[in-house]
Amino acid sequence: MIKVAINGYGTIGKRVADAVRAQPDMEVLGVAKTRPNFEAETAIDKGFPLYAAIEEREDQFAAAGLDIAGPVAELVDAADIVVDATPSGIGAENKSLYEEYDTPALYQGGEDAALVDTSFNARSNFEDAVDADHVRVVSCNTTGLSRAIAPLREAFGVEKVRATLVRRGGDPGQTSRGPINDILPDPVTIPSHHGPDVETIFDDLDIDTLGMKVPATLMHMHSLNVTLEEAVDAAEVRDLFGDESRLFLIPKHMSIDGSGKLKEYALDAGRPRGDIWENAVWEESISTVGRDLYLFQGIHQESDVVPENVDAIRAVTGSADAEESIRTTNEALGIGL
Amino acid sequence: MIKVAINGYGTIGKRVADAVRAQPDMEVLGVAKTRPNFEAETAIDKGFPLYAAIEEREDQFAAAGLDIAGPVAELVDAADIVVDATPSGIGAENKSLYEEYDTPALYQGGEDAALVDTSFNARSNFEDAVDADHVRVVSCNTTGLSRAIAPLREAFGVEKVRATLVRRGGDPGQTSRGPINDILPDPVTIPSHHGPDVETIFDDLDIDTLGMKVPATLMHMHSLNVTLEEAVDAAEVRDLFGDESRLFLIPKHMSIDGSGKLKEYALDAGRPRGDIWENAVWEESISTVGRDLYLFQGIHQESDVVPENVDAIRAVTGSADAEESIRTTNEALGIGL
Amino acid sequence: MIKVAINGYGTIGKRVADAVRAQPDMEVLGVAKTRPNFEAETAIDKGFPLYAAIEEREDQFAAAGLDIAGPVAELVDAADIVVDATPSGIGAENKSLYEEYDTPALYQGGEDAALVDTSFNARSNFEDAVDADHVRVVSCNTTGLSRAIAPLREAFGVEKVRATLVRRGGDPGQTSRGPINDILPDPVTIPSHHGPDVETIFDDLDIDTLGMKVPATLMHMHSLNVTLEEAVDAAEVRDLFGDESRLFLIPKHMSIDGSGKLKEYALDAGRPRGDIWENAVWEESISTVGRDLYLFQGIHQESDVVPENVDAIRAVTGSADAEESIRTTNEALGIGL
Amino acid sequence: MIKVAINGYGTIGKRVADAVRAQPDMEVLGVAKTRPNFEAETAIDKGFPLYAAIEEREDQFAAAGLDIAGPVAELVDAADIVVDATPSGIGAENKSLYEEYDTPALYQGGEDAALVDTSFNARSNFEDAVDADHVRVVSCNTTGLSRAIAPLREAFGVEKVRATLVRRGGDPGQTSRGPINDILPDPVTIPSHHGPDVETIFDDLDIDTLGMKVPATLMHMHSLNVTLEEAVDAAEVRDLFGDESRLFLIPKHMSIDGSGKLKEYALDAGRPRGDIWENAVWEESISTVGRDLYLFQGIHQESDVVPENVDAIRAVTGSADAEESIRTTNEALGIGL
Q1: Residue A185 is nearest to which of C186, C190, C285, comparing CB atoms?
Q2: Which of A218, A226, A224, A314 is nearest to A1 (CA)?
Q3: For chain B, is the Cβ count within 10 Å smaller at the N or the C terminus?
Q4: How high is the ipTM of this complex?
């Protein structure tokens, strides 16, 4: 059993903890959190040993009636690998801690690519992370783009990618974030950072991305254009994507018009937290005009990187190859709507 | 086993179906739906026999690859009781069908009180529905108000209730509903219909309600004022409410500031669909000024009536008294956060 | 003086009425409306003769204390030209009325291109409408795209246009429209109708468009990609656009991050209704990668077609050429932020 | 002519500047701002001398091409009175500056009541500010409540006020503020600070207030309950309110359902920035049940305090009594829709 520590028990960390626990070859050694709140309560309720990410705050947990197992350093020391799921920039601060205890670490997409040995997407470059010490699982948007681009590169060749990423302003519980009633170019300069980020996965890819921010909380939406190296029929792309385990093609007859109904479907289907680990591609939207492919895909910012973190654990610990890891992760979670 | 038919498999119907299935003394005989969509798919996936609510549309289901068990009349005929969970006004149209087959029926709060023998809230007037043929489970807002008022009446006496109901504009999947950026008096006339509706449960209650509609989808929020018959300390009210199984007092240390984090907590806790069957009362908000009690409570419009429907089934079929039914329902669903 | 009738006094009609009145060579003969409301009140307050678009409803206006000048047919008969600003599809129904009185007519972008002799954008094809009887002023989005594309075609040649149109769900007063919290592919099929609509202005243009709908009310936002026939420096595009009277380049030092601050700037500057008649192009966003040009532009759905309607009046009545008309319109309205 | 300095040229300051300029007995000596942006540009365009609120930042204005008239201290020194329209808490920091130059000052409602000699609402306690040196114009919500309560106290006597204030999350240009999709008790404790704030105007009033925050930007909405000292017919209240110059009764026949259409009406009517200086009371909502009065009123957070600031200038400078000041302000601005 791979002993996994999870540092940061918020949106991503709590999902990674549940996903790790569901794997046949892993166990959650403990989770670390900076302050008591409803998430800390459920960590305790689920039986995850809870560590104080900031030692001086142990009192706050005690005041809330929450038992602390110890300081985070103890957890890092005992683990085979740590998944850092702290907010952007904190991962970089934590790196020296992981190095001190010689524990390999995964970081999330908010960290800089230069922090790590390699950036990671299971479908695209699993092998690059094998036996690496510091690996960055790329962001939700970069993960979503990589999953769609990888099979297209293999099957048809990709000349150029142009994508507009219409991003949710905040997650459902992030009540201090806006905008309330606006559509913001974000960043206003072009290209956005997402294109270069995808190039950490595919270093020879030609991609330009534009970002916006809108008053929605459920999912990001990508308007994706890929100029292929050959003219392709839309049906071929639908078939190609149909074989990808982390692409979900939304069929027309489901009458799912956006992320609200999509999440409702996931909840109805019994998905934990209504998570949509796959790219959600509207099947009807897949269209080709000559060599230009167009489509819409919804990206669930809270969960699409979760299976990627699980796979990255196996890559870094050298415990499975890409195919075996992806299959095991998918089966354990129930990926494939 | 009580054989339950569910006519209407949308927001309420699908939740009632799952809740009925979870009971030790009931089974779902089948569910009826008017058109194929993602909900019809999950009905099939869950093994609920699917009936066509509109016989002429059986073809549409076939075209979507969904097997139909038969016309809705067959289902009504075979059932001990039917739960009508169709949109407002359709229940009234369906009444003659239920009468034709002599099957007792529950209706939802969108129907008129005059349609039925009695309106129903398990905590407040379970006995009124015993052996009735046509019972209306009151709306989500009326249910929420009744649950808070009932114990206050018993413990302290209620002189007058004034409530402002700030209502979500639509459910998460209802993308055609607004407003996008407004706060609407709705209805603009005062009192709103909610007050008289609460009086179908407590016929001697003095209550005035005001309604608004805002651009949110997750829950309604009530600003509640109850003038009691005696001056009471807030702590007494907190204690009183703490004993009510369908009131959840949100503790301060959970750092839950609104319905977004509340739903996230419910999802983290493993609640199906993140449903919050209880009134969610902010514990910190419970305050008294002389005989005036004030509080905020969140009402989950999609689910708070679900346990009430289950209890109403037992009332109508005479299979348990209030206390036993509520206890069984609560245990089967896991009510009590 | 050109005698102008305006049939439909809502979002577009009331703005066209004010704009026509501001012209030195035009007068508003009257405006027609289907029902009394706050807009009808201001029509009276502004001294526009008010006609009943539906004769049988004259009573309703009387009940609201509003004097009706007569039936709409009288107005059409007396006018040199009618601007039909009725909702989509009603313009087509009205065409026979205009033909009956032999009055030339302008229609809005919601009507079908096949209804008219020519579609119209002042910057791009003014001459096509000279002496035509039935002319369609293209929609807000098509107007915005045409204004940006026309100078690029002339200066550099355009190989292909790809645009993602992120559209506001409804106007500020349209409280029944959603979505409240979603990002909808709309239409989900690709390309959207906008591309073909732009081709009614440039019949040899290669353009693919994708549409979305989001919970915002103020403006649409376009993510625009134009593959030019030659590689161009972004500065050249900024210079080119700087010379266009109906493109407003938002300078960086204004710190305008979206449509909220943009509208606030327009209101501060004294613009009537805060209208932004120009395309609002974020100057910082104008970027080139080889022959690919990218930019963000905000399109004010309520007003960008207003100066176009004014110019179309001059084209149809043959009273000025493009250059003179555009200059007159711009000066009379104060176009050019 | 009263020489007025305005320190802070944002949402409130820029409106006060325009309102002061419109008065026959006042002039704007200059406005001070902390950083260049679109508002600074329009200050220059309108011919208001622009002072640097933070002397070290003069360079930033120069870089943006904006001429600075001097440091804010110079402006304060030369003025008869300064209107401090800086963000909450900054006014308190500025007080010593105003004292240093012996210039009387107005502050906004975000400052603490203890900072000043008196809090101010023109309709309710104009006289208290006569010849005071430091006066606080109460917040938008307190202003709105005071205007409604004052005539009720005089005509019928007020036993108790209960109000739920459903507040917009941010102004239209405040894109970093949320929530996006939530209804927040805010503050979660009861009563909110608004009640005590109203008591700075009416020191013997019994009032309890509850606050919420929702995803809307246009206006606040109050659900107001006033228990009067005698039973009153709703028509009497409508008549009473009809005589109040700063209460606008929205008539039913205008078909205005919320703040979106209300603002549109104000814009159509030519109001600068679409400002609604009056409380907007839905006439249909005014209802009585025994001694309980209920109504809905919209409060335009950006502008309802503007005429109050103008009146406070006259009170502090002793240049007119309440009746004369209010009449002059109303006429100069065009108050009374």
Answers
A1: C285
A2: A314
A3: N
A4: 0.96
**Which D-chain residues 227-286 have CB contacts (< 8 A) with chain B?**
257-260, 282, 284-285
Strand B207-214, strand B220-228: pairing? unpaired
Q: How far is residue D91's CA from residue D97's CA, in Å, rounded to a whole number?
A: 10
pLDDT lower than 70: segments of chain A: none
Task: Look at residue D39 and give its three-state secondary structure.
Answer: helix
By mean pLDDT, which of B54-58, B271-275, D95-99 is the weakest? B54-58
Q: Does D171 touch chain B (CB under 8 A)?
A: no
Backbone angles phi and psi of C182, in degrees to 5: -160, 165
The DSSP symbol for B203 reads T
Confidence check: pLDDT of B337 > 80 = no
Burial track B199-224 (b if 16+ CB lie within 10 A, e otherwise): bbbbeebbbbbbbbbbbbbbbbbbbb
A140 is catalytic: yes
DSSP structure string for C37-99: SHHHHHHHHTT--EEESSGGGHHHHHHTT----EEHHHHHHH-SEEEE-PSTTHHHHHHHHHH
Are C181 and A217 within 8 A, CB to CB?
yes
Nearest residue to A214 via CA among B142, C60, D178: D178
**From the CA of C14, how many Å to the nearest CA of chain A?**
24
∠ Cα B237 B240 B242 (to 5°): 105
State the nearest Cα–Cα gap between D201 and chain B, in angstroms. 21
| Chain mean position to CA D118 | 16
For residue B148, is pLDDT > 80? yes
CA–CA gap between residue D134 and residue C139 (Å, rounded) = 54
Whether residues C258 and A289 touch (CB distance < 8 A) is answered with no
Residues facing residue C279 across a β-bridge? C247
B216 in contact with chain C, both atoms CB, cutoff 8 A:
yes
d(CA B330, CA B314): 13
Cβ D122 vs Cβ D323: under 8 Å: no
**What pLDDT is recorded for position A336?**
85
> Catalytic one among C82, C140, C313, C335?
C140
Nearest alpha-carbon partner for B197 in B141, B125, B117:
B141
Model pLDDT, residue B112: 97
State which residues of chain C have pLDDT below 50: none
Which residue in C174, C175, C256 is closest to D38 by CB distance?
A: C256
Tokens of A247: 């692409």
Q: How far is D212 from chain A (nearest CA, A)?
A: 13
Q: Coil, helix or strand for D87?
A: coil
Residue-wise pLDDT tens digits, C287-325: 999 999 999 999 999 999 999 999 999 999 999 999 999
Tell me what the pLDDT averaged over chain D comes to. Answer: 97
Structure confidence by residue, pLDDT tens digits, D48-70: 999 999 988 889 999 999 999 99
Give the angle subtended at the CA of A49 by the CAs of A43 and A51, to the nearest 5°: 95
Residues 6+ apart with CB under 8 A from A330: A245, A246, A307, A336
Q: In this predicted structure, what is the pLDDT of residue A238?
A: 98
| Cα–Cα dist A229/A159, whole Å | 6
pTM, two decimals, is 0.97
Q: Rg of chain C's alpha carbons, rounded to an integer?
A: 20
Q: Do C38 and D267 touch (CB under 8 A)?
A: no
A66, A83, A106, A140: the active-site residue: A140
Rounded Cα–Cα distance for residues A131 and A319 (Å): 10
Record: contact D255-C172, CB cut-off 8 A = no
Pairing of strands A184-185, C287-289: unpaired
For residue B55, the model assigns a pLDDT of: 85
Which residue spans within D36-88 are E strands per DSSP?
Answer: 50-52, 70-71, 81-84
